[in-house]
Amino acid sequence: MSQGGVVPGGVVTSLEPYEDPLDLMDEIDQLKKDRDATILAHFYVDGEIQDIADFSGDSLKLARDATTVSTSTILFAGVHFMAETAKMLSPDKRVLIPDLKAGCSLAESCPPQALKKYQDELREKGHDFQTVAYINTSAAVKSLCDWIVTSGNAREIVERVPKDKEILFVPDRHLGRYLSEVTGRKMILWPGSCMVHEVFSIQDLLRAKKNTPGSIVMAHPECPQNILEVTDFIGGTEAMRKYAMSLEEPKTFLVATEANMLHPLEKSAPQHTFVPVPGIMASTGETCACNRCPHMALNTLQAVRNCLRDETPEIEWQPYFESARGVVAKSLLN
Ligand code: SF4
């Protein structure tokens, strides 16, 4: 149970005293009614928060779910860019997020000013391109782009980019490299990466694979090439869930993505065994639990309760949301 502490990356998740999770869940249930709120939770937040949510899923599903909500308030248990996306798609709703500090290393690797400067430089050099952004970007960055992709729809969107255009893909170089390989489209890659998916240990993965004959390796396309090369199934979180559900015979899966993903996998496909692939600390070379996202970990039950109780923090509408909304709607809702 997440009752505070320090998670890998040195982020303090909560300093609040221990509270019984069942009491907190009851309190949240009541507050949802009092505040006319719907809870959306990403697959990477703690399982107990996914269990109390009205909708859980990957970024694509949650962006679509946000547009179907009938309550006046959305609480987004995830990270900042996800709550921003919900706000831009549902401007009339009040969108709350348990902790405004819940960012994303990928989104932060691509500041809007730096992207604009790079786009201008490429145009000056004669490049005729469209910018395709992974959804893990700020709204300000999305407003500078032509298309938005999630790991769930990336191939389909890349295929919609006119063939006579080059593609500038931001911010995840690993996902961009993988997409370039599977679509055959040449891409200019922004040098960003996810702090969680970069730390998987190829040695530990190969050892686990050897020690578990018949196991299936599942990895997120945000992982580096050396991990994907030994992976049996590459896909976003929802694709992983559907793939596991499609196999009836019990299997052991070695899972290379954020460790909380094991919760929906175990719920959806209980016939299988899911084993998280360990991370490795770059500074010491030691195996660690850094396959937990420190930003997602800020979504504790207490933080969700406090957010509903105090009705803050809230995602405020920004002028650039309007242009970002057009790109997001074209890419994710059509
Ligand atoms: S797991 Fe990686 S990509 Fe996902 S929110 Fe955390 S830092 Fe960002």
Gyration radius, in Å: 20 Å
Give the amount of beta strand, in percent: 15-25%
Whole-number mean pLDDT: 92
Uncertain parts = 1-12
Our measurement of the CA-to-CA distance between the termini, rounded to an integer number of angstroms, reads 39 Å
CATH class of the largest domain: Alpha Beta
Q: Which structural class best describes the helix and strand composition?
A: alpha/beta
Which hetero ligands occur in this complex? iron/sulfur cluster
CATH superfamily of the largest domain: NadA-like
The number of helical elements comes to 15
Counting DSSP E segments of at least 2 residues, the number of strands comes to: 16
- Kindly give the count of domains: 3
CATH topology of the largest domain, anyone?
Rossmann fold
Describe this structure in words.
There is one protein chain. With about 325 residues, this protein is an alpha/beta fold. The protein has 3 domains: about 5-100 and about 295-310, Rossmann fold; about 105-195, NadA-like (Rossmann fold, 3-Layer(aba) Sandwich), CATH 3.40.50.10800; about 195-290, NadA-like (Rossmann fold, 3-Layer(aba) Sandwich), CATH 3.40.50.10800. About 40% of the residues lie in helices and about 20% in strands. The protein contains 15 helices and 16 strands. It has helices at about 20-35, 45-50, 60-65, 80-90, 105-110, 110-125, 140, 155-160, 175-185, 200-210, 225-230, 235-245, 260-270, 300-310, 320-334; strands spanning about 5, 10-15, 35-40, 55, 75, 95, 130-135, 145-150, 165-170, 185-190, 215-220, 235, 250-255, 275, 280, 285-290. The strands form 5 sheets. It has a 4-stranded parallel sheet, with helices on both faces. Strands 8-7-9-10 form a 4-stranded parallel sheet. Helix 9 links the parallel strand 9 (about 165-170) and strand 10. Helix 1 (about 20-35) packs parallel to helix 14 and helix 4 crosses helix 15. The longest helix has 14 residues, at about 20-35. The structure holds iron/sulfur cluster (SF4). Iron/sulfur cluster binds near residues 258, 293 and 295. Iron/sulfur cluster binds near residues 44, 105 and 106.
